Structure formats: C-alpha cells, structure tokens
Amino acid sequence: MSAYEDRLKALREQLVRERLDGFVVPLTDEHMSEYVGEYAQRLAWLTGFQGSAGSAVVLPEEAAIFVDGRYTLQVREQVDAAHWQFESVPQTSVAAWLGVHAPQGGRIGYDPWLHTRAWVKAASEALAERGAELVAVETNPVDAVWPDRPAPSDARLVVHEDRYAGQSAAEKRQAMADWLTEKKVDAVVLSALDSIAWAFNIRGKDVSRTPVALAYAIVHDDATADLFVAPEKIDEAVVQHLGNAVRVRSRADFAGALRDMAGKTVAADPERAVAAIFEALDVGGATILPVRDPAVLPKAIKNPVEIAGHKAAQARDGAALSRFLHWIAVETPKGGVDELSAAARLEAFRKETGLLEDLSFDTISGVGPNGAVVHYRVEEKTNRPIEPGSFYLVDSGGQYRDGTTDVTRTIAIGTPSEEMKRRFTLVLKGHIALARAQFPTGTRGSQLDVLARQFLWAEGLDYAHGTGHGVGSFLSVHEGPQRIATAGGNDEPLQPGMILSNEPGYYKTGEYGIRIENLVLVERRDVPGAEREMLGFETLTFAPIDRNAIAVDILTAEERAWVDAYHAKVVEIVGPQLDGDALLWLEQACAPL
C-alpha cells in the first residue's frame, strides 16, 4: 500500500475507535487561515494534495476531496483516484455531499477549531436529512494517527516599525476602542493572524511565506488588550513595543478567557472566528455581536506610508524580475534550464536586493502543460525543461518590510504558434481594459470582472479563477475583503488605498497556460464634468510584458498606446537599477510596439 493509502486506513480505524462514521478534514488552521503552518497541514498529509484551498470527507467506505477550479488538474495529479472521489466547488460543497453520502443515522465528526459556525449549521442541516448528526471532537483524529506531526513554530515575534506601518499600534487599538464604544460592546475577539499582526504592529515566522505569529487577541473598550501567544516567542523588544496596555498571556489561556466573559457583550467575526470561539463565549454567558473584525477594512485601505513603501518594494522587485527575464532570454536558448532551476534563479535575484524577508508564496514556475495548472507547484517528479515552442508561466512575489509583491509573466520561449499569440493577446486586452477602467465610488469588484474576461468570452474562452485579490502590507499576499471576481461571497465596494491584483489568464489543458498579473492601487480620479466621485487604478508593478507573444494586429490604437506607455514607465523605474547587457535588453524589451 502507498503511504497515503496507509494513512487513510489508519484514520478510518481511529474513527471506529472514536465511534464516528466519518470525519471532515479542511485545509485551514484554528485562525481560518488560507496559508497554514506545517503542524496544520492535515489535508496534505492525508491525501497528498499540495494546493492552498480544499477539504476532504472520510466515510467508512468512501472518501471525497473538494477543490475549486484552480486545482481541478492539480488534485488529479497529486491524489489517488482509486481512493478519493474528486468534487468541484462551488458546484457542490462538503455539506451538500454529506447530505447524500453520509450513512443513515451516522455520527460525522468535525474539529470545532477548524470550521466556522455557518459551516457547522449548514452541515448539521444537511445531515439531519439523513437522520445523521455532526459531532464536535475534543482532539482531532488526524493528529492521533499522524506520528511525526510537526510542532507549531517557536519563532520569535518581531516589531513592525511605525516607519513601515504608518500608524502606531496604540492608535489602532484606540480606533478599535472607539468602534466598540460606538457599538456599545465591551470587547472584540481577534483570531485572524493578519488582523492581529496589523493591529499590534507585530510580525512573525510561524507560517511559511506569510509573516504572522500564532496568537489570539481580545481588545477592550478602554483600548487595553490581551494578547495570547506562547511566552517563549516574546522577547524584551516586543514587550517594550506592546507597552503596559497589552497584557501578554499564554495562548493556552485563550479558551478560558472567552469563558470568563460572563455578562459582557463581545464582538466576533463569523467569517474569521471558528465555531469553538462562539461556543466558548456562549458557555461563558457572554452576549455575542457577530460582526466583521474591525481590523479588516482599515488593514485593506493602505495609508500613505504603506503606499509609499509598497511602491518602493515594487520598484525593487520589478528590477529583480527584469534581471530574471533577461537571464531567461539569454540562458533558455542554450538549453539546460528547467522549472526548478528557473524558480531558484528568480529567488536568487530577489535575495540580491538584500531586503527580501521571504517569498510571498511558493513560486509557480510552469512550462507548457504545467503552465496550464493554475496553481502549479513544481517538484522533482513534475519538473520540465524550458524548451523552444512553449509558453513559460512564472507567478511569484516577495515579502519585504515595506511591501508585499505578486506578479505573473508569461514568456514565449522561441516562436509561439499563432493560436498562442492570439490567446495571449486576448488576455492582455482584458488586462488593459481593467487597468484603464474608471468607475464610480461604491463599485464592487464583481461589476468590473467582466472587463477582463470579455475578449476571451467573445471567442468562447474563459478562466476558472478570480481576476483580482487584495494584497497586504508585509502581510498576506491574499488579503480581503476586496476582490475582483464573479459575484458570490463577500463583495466589498472598492475604496481608495486598496491594493488588488489584475490577473486574467487562459489555460489550455495539456498544452500551455497564460496569465498576466500586475498589482494596482485604487485611486480617486478627476473626471471633467463627472456627476459622481470617480475611481480608477494606478498600476504598481513594473516589468516587461513579452512583446514576442503579442499579436499586435488585434490590439486597438488605445491598447497599443497603453502597452507603449507602460513599457516606457518600466524603463523609467527599473532602468536606473540595471546596467550593462541587462539594461540594453530591458530597453529592447520595452521598445514601442
């Protein structure tokens, strides 16, 4: 049997011991994080799936894994179809599937520290249709059969200085206290790791690629706070930074502190706080106000210091990426370059800035058919040489103290086919349409999404991912609440200061993938004669877009002008950071169409 078959068998045996007829395994942690520490990678350990979003259900005789359109190909390559059914989200859901497949009268286990209260309600209702029940477990049965499960990180917290944050932690807590007073609420629970990092101006190394620390917090209406974190992770510099108004307590004390809130009115975010948090507040006799975490929107709307820092990080990162694109142009014709060596070289260029703290996510380095796997993760067994006649897609980013970057370029290796050039250009047209958009205040990302898809749709093509996500400030590379995607879920009106990605794509299964991604800043626009306040996007990312992949004849005059103006700006911002052959290459790569 394979290791994964053994693990599935061991989990089923554990469920028998615990008198459970099934168990749900989500890819998250007790903070509802998208990216999680190694200790919380239960889905990957059980199934082999390496994507960043998914869930699984294990029943006595069948098991299913649930992923969205980004991972349709990847899950089939990494997970054994002999033991797992593949289910697509949002076409179905874990709750809906359980409502059909759960054993009649069965007991389906779940870890209340890994699910929201809304999920628990939906799953319970679906199971009730079959006379089955959802059962909260005290300890996760996956952990019981995972013999070498890593311990949570013991990395120290670090101070995120005001010169990067643009606002002190005390000012942020006071703003939260004012919000609590206005709502007549005594305290708010913060459980999202990036919210805690932002609110206290601290960072950490507990999650790969995301500079956060494992902690919980309760902020009170007098602007004091309790920060629950492993004591060994705090040094004197952090203690001094936090000051007397922040009580540092053991992370193990958090659940008890919630149960001690009797008679208090406490705000908790139903999207970001797990069911166990609500349960502890209920048991303790607190009155719960289910509202969005008050750090979410201020964190998303970058202040002038954060915007300036982000632009500095983008300029530095764009130079590193441009050096890499020059290296690709020189080295791939010689042969010997593959996906792994290219990703390593790109990381080396970023490290040469001397300011890189980490990558912002694992680099997606995919050539040919691997580029068609939306969130492809290169490893030895899938590694392909970068050869002529292919598209090479590289989606990457860096974590710098002053900003987080995320950029995708698709590069024609040798001469692309006419179909490849046409579809690259359709994606580019969508990218330009979104970059040039003007829209009134109050517009939501779902209203703009079609701008990026329209040219693909006209030829019966599309892509199975959102067009844009928010980006943090030396925080998570995927940050809400803003996004640009088809309607559904939270759809936040765009506001000045928000940073998003602009990343339409196209993926031909088994052949190639295309994505063109820049980050953009929402800004106010002065439109003569306008009767409403108008907004638009300022492009923040600067690196060449491959002119050899563009079918210039299908661009309009306005689109050609946009490309030429963009490339002129690339030379202006990146050029002074390059010299020699790299600078000559950049000037040629950015020559007018």
UniProtKB/TrEMBL annotation:
One Pfam family from the record: Creatinase_N
GO MF entries: aminopeptidase activity
Source superkingdom: Bacteria
Residue stretches making up the Creatinase N-terminal domain: 7-138
Recorded coiled-coil stretches: none
Stretches assigned to the Peptidase M24 domain: 310-523
Keyword Metal-binding assigned: yes
SUPFAM superfamilies reported for this sequence: Creatinase/aminopeptidase, Creatinase/prolidase N-terminal domain
Domain Peptidase M24 C-terminal: 533-593
Keywords: Aminopeptidase, Hydrolase, Metal-binding, Protease
InterPro entries in UniProt: Creatin/AminoP/Spt16_N, Creatinase/aminopeptidase-like, Creatinase_N, Pept_M24, Pept_M24B, Peptidase_M24_C, X-Pro_aminopeptidase_P
CDD domains: APP
PANTHER family: XAA-PRO AMINOPEPTIDASE 1
Entry's family note: Belongs to the peptidase M24B family.
Protein name: Aminopeptidase P family protein
Organism: Sphingobium agri
